[in-house]
Hints:
heterotrimer; B: alpha/beta; Rossmann fold; Ubiquitin-like (UB roll); 4 domains; 22 helices; 42% helix; disordered C terminus; C: Rossmann fold; five-stranded parallel beta sheet; 6 helices; 31% helix; 21% strand
Amino acid sequence: MIVPATPPKVRVVTLKIDDKDLSAREDETILEVARQNRIAIPSLCFLEGLSIWGACRLCVVEMKGSSRLLSACSTRVTEGMEVQTNTERLRHYRRVILELLFAERNHVCSVCVSNGNCELQSLAQSCGLDHVRVPYRTSVYEVDPTHDLFRLDHNRCILCTRCVRVCDEIEGAHTWDVMGRGIGCRVVTDLKRPWGESASCTGCGKCVQVCPTGALVSQGTSAGEMRKDRRFLPYLSQMRGVR
Amino acid sequence: MNIDELRDVAEKVREEAAKCSHCLRVCTAAGCQSSGAGAVVEGLKAAVGDNPQVQVKSVGCMGLCSGGPLVEVESREGGSKVMYQKVTPGDASEIVESLGGRPVERLVCPTDIPFFASQQKIVLENSGVIDPEEIDDYIAADGYQALVTSLTEMQPDDVLREVTRSGLRGRGGGGYPTGLKWSTVAKMPAEQKFVVCNADEGDPGAFMDRGVLESDPHRVLEGMAIAAYAVGASRGYIYIRAEYPLAIERLKTAIRQAGRRRLLGLNICETRFSFDVEIRLGAGAFVCGEETALMASVEGLRGQPRPRPPYPAQEGLWGYPTLINNVETFGNVPSIIRHGGEWFAGIGTENSKGTKIFALAGRIQHTGLIEVPMGIPLREIVHTIGGGIPEGRTFKAVQTGGPSGGCIPESHLDVSVDYDNLRQVGSIMGSGGMIVMDDTSSMVDVARYFMDFCASESCGKCVPCRVGTHEMHGLLDKIARGQGTAADLALLEELCEVVQATSLCGLGQTAPNPVLSTLRYFRHEYEQLLRPSDDEKPASGGQVVTEAKS
Amino acid sequence: MSESRKITLATSWLDGCSGCHMSFLDIDERLIELADKVEFVYSPLVDYKQMPESIDVGILEGAVSSEDDLDKALKFRKHCKFLISLGDCAVTGNVPAMRNFFPLDAVFDRAFKENVQLQPQRPTVNVPKLLVPVRPIHSVVKVDLFIPGCPPSANTIWQILSELVAGRMPNPAQFTRFGA
């Protein structure tokens, strides 16, 4: 005997992204559905597994029937939705947003430890940004090298808050947060104490790995930084004797 | 409390008042208080002494702030009223002695001028009349009747229908239909819902909400309670900026008094409806007037907006459906319930019903708080009610809608004030601030001022607003200093478009408006300030050169 | 482009390390191929002292840091029909622009006093005045094509020049990026 199905909690909807007919679960976002279907939408603050932040605005898309642009990372799909992700207007806006990010702090790629390994840098290339017209701010930001394992360089930070979210939501330490407002915002550890003195940091390094730029890096990654720990040398002969 | 008990209280207050021959009302809202109204009250009380025939009363805002401290004398016999302006404590005995005789001529403020005569008061009907710290005074002015009627004689659906029928739209600036918002929250299936009153009035030059809360706080509480009944909420928050200490004090008093009268709290009017209101203080961030940032702040988080949808009506405070309305919106509700939605819809224009409170400021004869029917021509507000421009200068523009709004020039002054018309001329209704500018104002400076405001009030979450407003301010500053080129102006316009289109919340999306509207009407002022670019000129002129000191 | 006339090319370096010019030279034997179609009319790599009145393509390396840089940029813009910013210093300001973080006096002291043992002093004669801030070329004159990279690889330069010589507008993002 066939047991009648219980109605599903989540329905499946059909929608169009860039004129492609697609199906998706209604609890998925435009960005998730697009990526499943190999439609590339640029993003910086989004990271699968972390909560949605919606702040970089690179993933904005056009939706038919809406005069407002929607951020693809935060907007759930609906039945019959028609989305355009790559119009000339959107490409232009994305380039300007990237220009603003490059102008905000000091992203000198050629001398950055993350050169060649940076999402901001590669997005600039893939979005066709080859120069920045917005005046550079050229404010000096400090570097916090106090942690044994990691280093924070505010000059390269784009305030995507991936570090804040991964630390809070995954590691559960909530060492990171954001202080200040407007252009004066910056990420801080433990109410703006030096990272090395943080009582809450577990040293797990997740923040470093999720950071899209060279703002959070491992110590010892720029020239001349190798520090040898030779404290065990006096005991070498004893160690040898044990064998 | 039921409707009969309410009437008894009202009757008692009226009887008490009838015992006096004269009532002296002194405005003790923030404007008049800062020009010395407190001392005037003391002076009048001293002059009256123990004469039971004369009552001295602290009341709320009478509107004409430029004339403060204001005192109104009402004589019971014949009901005649005289208003005095710029009263000092030294005038007290003269005023008291004049009672029953001829008024003190040198202090009289004519009330037949258009500033008073052209107004139509709904939300401000009790302002300047009742004592905001006395709940019985409010009850005597038919207060809490609407709440009691709603609870005892109407179903929540009936309340929704009246509000929808009234055509009321959100007075905080967006103009979203209030009935629709309420119904959305009412339809949400949830065991817990919230009502939030947004009193985080932050626009430069705007003080409508402050006026209402300082003058008639119970009206807002009553509106909130009716809303809560309609949508099925049991808790409310008033989010008010800490810079309004007097409004906060009066709200606290009002909440305490309403609780004691059992018009707030458990089982109001012996029904199953319960509603508690708490105050939350804003710590000075303009962005916390944005509803999602406001909710984050109420929850104790950093006051930053989040993407919508989901809207607060779906997922608001702690994820529960939440109704957020502005002070003035709630202030309209008791009148709508008392007189019916039909009555309200009869006032105003096709798409904008009712009245609107404006705060007149800037280069204008009469500054203060006014309430006028929607659809009134802007020219009438500025030149007739406002009394025109002082010192023989000429009108240049009026800025409406605060940092999210725009500047309207002489050529559009005949526009009738409603949501859609103001949008069409490149501004917005906003919450009701109106700053009038005369021919001495530079519009580039105005745009720069507002951009500076937006940049420093940006929460810093999204890139276009955080960096875009900062860069736009830099470009405006450069142009205002005569250092900008045509390329700078073009880049400024481009940034305006991008920030408007891509910002996360309303603050960023509307931040370019002052620039766009001044560019639209006063482009020549920008162009006059431009200098030729480097490649159009001989080398090294106009450069920022810092010579090496030897 | 007609066969009879070669494309005229001028290059110069402003505030930079001349690494982009070195990278240019690194196209090696392809220089000969290029020389068939292009004539260097003014460049630190050749010996012409006078800049011709009209040049087809100008290539500038380095950021605008001094009055001399500014003059060069303006001169190139005036004489060249098509102006290229070559390398990160020209395109973004890059390393030369890092002095923008410090007051000019501090920069001078570091360069000419603190690290100098013999007669520490500031050069004042026959040196161009420095500008504040250091800026990319396009913030001074209009630039038609940007080739980021530190330096752009020889291949990048070759590909982009080949496209231009063939009369097509290249897309540098295909070959290079900031910091490449």
